[in-house]
């Protein structure tokens, strides 16, 4: 994985009329172009598009909570309890992975992520992919979900060594052998410090 770092000077005008310059750093992951639309989310990437979203909307109506946090928890619990883990051979598109999970009730971690994302998208809850980095043996995918203005890790995958769900986890709580990730390319998570502040603190010491 290659990261490109950009340095940007931002000018702030304070209420008293003073001008303050703030240096910010932006990290962008250089993407490798692959075929298909893995992780597209909502795109027409398979022949199962209409059926997948029809099934997902029906599930959402049954498990919708009183607020986003309750709904997100219900979604994570639903996928966790209705899908069993299996190794899937070959490539899957985003919708193909979710279709398998919803019809065969089995999926790999990518299928768990896709199914959870579709349900969160239907619920209107902001979310995005997190993937294991670095990958030593097998990759892993899970969801970063925005609840009450903060981003949290949520993972609906069923693990042999961790039978419960990962819900509303900050970096410290979720950081284990399955959940290593590149912190610089994600939005600031709950209880986290923006990367540009860390960079400024580092620069001030040099």
Task: Report on the architecture of this protein.
It is a single chain. The chain has 206 residues and is an alpha+beta fold. 34% of the residues lie in helices and 24% in strands. The chain has six helices and eight strands, in the order ββααβαβαββββαα. α1 (49-63) crosses α4, α2 (68-82) packs antiparallel against α4 (109-123) and α3 (94-104) packs across α4 (109-123).
How many DSSP helices? 6
Distance N to C terminus: 27 Å
The percent range for strand residues is 15-25%
Overall mean confidence score, pLDDT? 83
Largest beta-sheet characterization: 4 strands, antiparallel
Structural class: alpha+beta
The percent range for helix content is 25-40%
Ranges where pLDDT stays below 50 over 5 or more residues in a row are: 32-43
> In angstroms, what is the radius of gyration?
19 Å
Features:
four-stranded antiparallel sheet, 206 residues, globular, alpha+beta, 8 strands
Provide a compact summary of the structure.
With 206 residues, this protein is α+β, with helices and mostly antiparallel strands. The protein has helices at residues 49-63, 68-82, 94-104, 109-123, 171-174, 195-205, and strands spanning 2-13, 19-30, 84-85, 106-107, 127-131, 141-147, 150-155, 166-169. The relative contact order is 0.14.
How are the elements arranged and paired?
Elements: E1 2-13, E2 19-30, H1 49-63, H2 68-82, E3 84-85, H3 94-104, E4 106-107, H4 109-123, E5 127-131, E6 141-147, E7 150-155, E8 166-169, H5 171-174, H6 195-205
Parallel strand pairs: 3-4
Antiparallel strand pairs: 1-2, 5-6, 6-7, 7-8
């Amino acid at each position: 994985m290659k990261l490109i770092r950009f340095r940007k000077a931002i000018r702030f005008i304070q209420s008293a009329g003073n001008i303050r310059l703030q240096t910010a750093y932006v990290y962008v992951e250089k993407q490798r172009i692959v075929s298909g639309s893995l992780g597209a989310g909502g795109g027409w990437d398979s022949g199962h598009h209409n059926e997948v979203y029809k099934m997902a909307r029906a599930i959402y109506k049954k498990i919708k909570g009183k607020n986003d946090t309750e709904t997100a928890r219900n979604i994570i619990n639903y996928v966790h309890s209705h899908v069993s883990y299996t190794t899937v051979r070959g490539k899957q598109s985003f919708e193909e992975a979710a279709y398998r999970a919803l019809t065969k009730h089995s999926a790999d971690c990518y299928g768990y992520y896709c199914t959870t994302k579709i349900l969160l998208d239907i619920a209107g809850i902001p979310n995005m992919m997190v993937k294991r980095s670095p990958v030593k043996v097998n990759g892993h995918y899970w969801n970063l979900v925005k609840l009450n203005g903060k981003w949290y890790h949520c993972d609906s995958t069923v693990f042999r060594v961790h039978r419960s769900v990962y819900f509303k986890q900050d970096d410290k709580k979720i950081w284990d052998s399955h959940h290593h990730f590149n912190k610089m390319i994600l939005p600031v998570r709950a209880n986290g410090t923006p990367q540009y502040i860390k960079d400024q603190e580092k620069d001030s010491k040099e």
